Amino acid sequence: MKRLLPGLLISISTLSLWGQTPADPRALRVQQTGAQPGRQEVRVALVIGNDRYRHVDPLRNACADARAMASRLEGTGFQVLLRTDVDEKGMKEALRTFKNRIRGGDVAVFYFSGHGLQLGGSNLLLPVDIKDESEDQVRDDAIPLQRVLDDLQEQKAKFSLAIVDACRNNPFKGSGRSIGGRGLAPTTAATGQMVLFSAGTGQEALDRLGPDDADPNGLFTRVLLEEMRKPGLPVDRLLRNVREEVVRLARSAGHEQVPALYDQALGEFYFIPGLLVPSVSDPAGRAPATVPIETIDFKQVTVLSRPPAPHYPPSARRARLTGKCVLEVTIDENGLPVTVSHGEGHPIFIAVATRYLLQWRFTPIELAGTKRKCRFRLTMPFNLKEGLQNIEIKGDNRSDRGSLATIPENAYNDGIELFNSSEIEMARPFFVKALALNSNYVLAEYMLGLLDIRDGAFASAKAHLQRYLDGSVDAKPNTQLHRQDADSVLKDLDSLGL
Fold first, then answer.
1. What is the pLDDT of residue 136?
2. Residue pLDDT, tens place only, 83-116
3. Which of 46, 320, 385, 414 sits at 20 to 30 Å (Cα–Cα) from 58?
């Protein structure tokens, strides 16, 4: 691969619309005891969405819900394992991987969207290959929610949250068999755990509020995603906000849906930390009030100093990523940045921009003669100074391609041509085909890794790139430069906490 080493072009502008999702991994902490001494907290998550059921009614929103949740969790510092449309074997493998990633003192989130039911008082999560032959068969092939909760407790996660959006119609009701009941049964959370169901016992969770509802996410998950954007909101309050809003919206559609929360957590957990400024108690002895942080226009801010712009992240450069971050910066009374959060942007850019902005220094803001903590919004674009040169293709004889459709190199080269002509998403099937024809054709692993980076699927990207590095050195073309690129991208993702 021929490549240039472009730098990073950054300009700043104010925005009138903004969101609030955290970007600074250093600011993400659980305010509770129990972490292993000397070990930094790690946030890990397993997200599963199942739509394409083979033997029972398929769903429409579950995979979209899972992808949106994975993106939101990654934006709040979680290492996310995302799986969609997985069978029994795949779900069990994902659970084993998830369990092995959790260490004592970590924070863990499990999210499932798909079919689920209660059977004999047990809550079961259904893989896409579930059959409706008998209750015994369903009990054997489904995944007990209790297994997930037991794994989290066994690994001694200091805070764990299980979110289950599986309270839909009984998937077996149309099969002529009576297997299980609608919705999920009440459960018990262990110490340090929270469990949230999208609906209460025997209730059905809505995917849509009506025929004109075009939102790609189900009611429960769309509300949860919105609440997760809010900084300074303890998780118990956040989940209660979700419950109240879901109830309100469901009733507007003539439906009863009350998410069920089972809470045994200790201390406080924040998806996004926030700042509350205490005031002095008044003479009447009333409790201290909170002073809201003043929101100002970026034009009111003077930048005292900032370091040189960082290099363009190698992983973004390889994947040809460009774009912008919409950021919110909070500065203290001395003009020092204390938090950076974002409303949109690729996670790679968010991580780089956050590290960069935390090194800036600003003139303290005075309002009514008093120095105040303030926040402001800005946009940070990421643009390559020069276009990345095309990946070199060797041995491509176009006249022979029609008769050689089963040769993996031809499928790979077709994918490269699409990638180089900016038809990037159309390139993916060709790299997949190259691997299907030859599982050792590791250059296809490399390119699939770059495409996953573009999609924000960092766990999958790392797996592809690692398989490339571990693959056969006889695969052609496989130059030392390619290996250096893959190694550089992996190190970049690790350094950014992605």
1. 84
2. 999 999 999 999 999 999 998 889 999 999 999 8
3. 46
- In CATH terms, the fold of domain 277-384 is TolA/TonB C-terminal domain (3.30.2420)
Q: What is the DSSP string of 195-219?
A: EEESS-TT----S-SSTT---SS-H
Query: Which tokens hold the place of 114?
Result: 């798909």
Sheet holding 260-263, edge to edge: 79-84, 43-49, 107-113, 159-165, 193-197, 260-263
Structure tokens that stand for 100 in this block: 């092995």
DSSP strands (E only) in 306-359: 323-331, 337-344
Q: What fold, for 398-495?
A: 1.25.40
What's the full length of the chain, in residues? 498
∠ CA 87-124-63, nearest 5°, is: 50
pLDDT tens per residue across span 310-362:
777 777 777 777 888 777 888 888 888 877 765 567 777 777 787 788 888 88
Ranked by mean pLDDT, which of 21-30, 282-291, 417-426 comes out on top?
417-426
Domain residue limits, the chain: 29-269, 277-384, 398-495
CATH code that applies to domain 29-269: 3.40.50.1460
What b-and-e string marks burial along 285-313, b requiring 16 or more CB atoms within 10 Å of the CB?
A: eeeeeeeebeebeeeebeeeeeeeeeebb
> Is the full-model pTM beyond 0.85?
no
CA atoms of 231 and 274, how far apart (whole Å):
5
Task: Report pLDDT for 168.
Answer: 60
For 55, the token pair is 């033997």
CB atoms within 10 A of CB 76: 22
Three-class SS state of 243? helix
Nearest to 196 by CA among 269, 118, 111, 120: 111
**What pLDDT score does 93 carry?**
92
Q: How far is CA 290 from CA 238, 280, 293, 450, in A?
A: 19, 10, 9, 46
